[in-house]
Amino acid sequence: MDHPPVSPRARAARASLTLPVVLTPVLRWANTVRAKVRGVAQSLVEGRGPYARAFENLIVALVIFSIASIGVESIPGLPQWATRALYVAEIVVVAIFTFEYLLRLVAARNKFGFIFSYQGLVDLLAIAPFYVLGVDARWLRALRLLRLLRVLKLQTHFLETVVEERTRELAEKNAALEKAQAQLKAELEVARALQLAILPASFPARSGCEAAARMIPATTMGGDFYDYIELPDGQVGLVIADVSGHGVPAAFFMAVARTNLHELALHHIDPGECLAQTNDALCAQNPLDLFVTVFYCVLDPKSGVLRYANGGHNPPYIRRAAGTVETLRGAGGLVLGAMPGGRYPTHTVQLVRGDRLVLFTDGVTEAFNPAEELYGAQRLADEVHVHGGGTPAALVERICQSVTNFAGTAPQSDDITLTVLTWGAP
Amino acid sequence: MNLRIEATGNVTYVAPVGRLDFDAAPGFQEALERLLGGAGERSAAVIIDGTALEYVSSAGLRAFLLAARAAQRSGIAFALCALQPAVREVFELSGFSRIIPVHTDRASALAQTPPGRA
Q1: B118 lies in a domain?
Q2: What is the chain B residue with the closest CA to A243?
């Protein structure tokens, strides 16, 4: 048969047509295999499954065995069979290490990165001497020494494990700490809610009396408090107080002081006597040496007579119906809880209809602004003078606004508490 | 807050500088307790010089109360002097000036402070 002449050029062209047709499935198959092999390799050397753990343990065991065998080999007069066995074992070990090295290389996303990484270099050093120096007996001694480098291989394994463990421990501790902190915060929130619940939410309107109050704690828990006490004979008691410091201890002392004063007020109608009794009660149960400044007054809504006593508290203001502001001076006594047996003189002042009584704690007058200036008594007196004509709630709101505006970005260093009482419609 | 402490003879002057508030009170209290406590060398009198003391909060007052008690226990005379008007007012309003003597300056404090039995 005569074949038509085929030019080499045409043959090459045909080959270039047929080759991809033949190769494409082969390449596709090769790609699939490569991906599979890489997946298996990754699951073995980087995975967390039981096979990966078993493989890891096998490698560590082999490293320990191979280091131990160096020691055994150096025993003089070792029988011929033992030397042979160790030699065969060494070949097996190197084969497995080589397999491991190749696995890691296959599994690594960045091949060069792995080769030049610490572990990559150590793994290579652990097997390279065998291939470079061969089985030549003259090099056996050197080989043995170089095998000592396998200690490093051991270290990389344990290092990884230790780092992983520490990271996990740290994460666990952080989580526990965060949990404890969240719990503490939640408990403080509950305590704060309980403390605010002690303060009267509203003042019952009675015979033309109207009152409003507000406390803004500096920290989660404050040491300031106010109270409104309905006394047996139709009179009303009004308290404002400031416990030294703030935070949880001050809040506890505040609860004790408020309860004592509230109870004693029902039995001792004279304000000075009531403070003296409260002081003695507080001194008897004061393990933290805290104390509280208290202003306590009793108003007779029928007559407008106000009787008051002061235990170391800022004297309140009276805004007369005409707008003038007076300070309720009058000798007071020592703060409550500091020393038993103190005397608290009772003073009397006659209110006229439309007068307003403004009780406050030093958190108001001693609020600082960013320039470290005090809000001061004068600013407060001015606010009371100018804006005191409205309802008690409006004046409380007005003063709180004024103090907050003044303080600006400066942190609030003390609780801010205000109580305003009016007697009779103007 | 800073404390300037000078010992002259058997009298120790303590001059607090700045604001004695909730944050500064524990340090101030500790320093006074060291001076007024039982251990070490003690002065017969400790006088607080308030020339540079700008502000005292209720937590600061508590430090003074505890110091006064420690002084009483140790038999050391304890007094205040040269208070700024605002601070003096705090001591008067709270009634503390009745349990801790307050003097106008160092000289009158020294003259009127009977040396303790230390």
Answers
A1: no
A2: B58
> Could you tell me the sign of the dihedral formed by the alpha carbons of B15, B21, B22, B24, in that order?
negative
What are the pLDDT digits (tens) for A332-361?
899 999 999 999 999 999 999 999 999 999
Per domain, the residue ranges of chain A are: 8-165, 203-423
- Full residue range of the structural domain in which residue B77 is found: 2-103
Q: Is the ipTM of this complex over 0.95?
A: no
CB atoms A332 and B93 under 8 Å: yes
Q: Measure in Å the smallest separation between the Cα of B44 and chain A Cα atoms.
A: 24
All residues of chain B having their beta carbon less than 8 Å from the beta carbon of residue A335 are 61, 94-96
Query: What's the rounded Cα separation, in Å, for the pair A291 and A335?
Result: 6
Distance from the Cα of B38 to chain A's closest Cα (Å) equals 20
Mutate to test the interface with B, among A295, A328, A413 (most CBs of B within 10 A): A413
B73 within a domain of the structure (yes/no):
yes
Closest CA to A206 of A236, A174, A165: A236
Closest by Cα among A59, A125, A66 to A91: A66
The predicted model scores a pTM of 0.69
Which residue of chain B has the CA closest to A361? B58
Choices 3.30.70.980, 3.30.200.20, 3.30.70.2120, 1.20.120.350: CATH for A8-165: 1.20.120.350
Half-sphere exposure of A399 (CA within 13 A, CB side): 38
Q: Spell out which residues of chain A touch residue B94, defining contact as CB-CB under 8 Å.
A: 293, 312, 334-335
**Architecture in CATH for domain A203-423:** 4-Layer Sandwich (3.60)
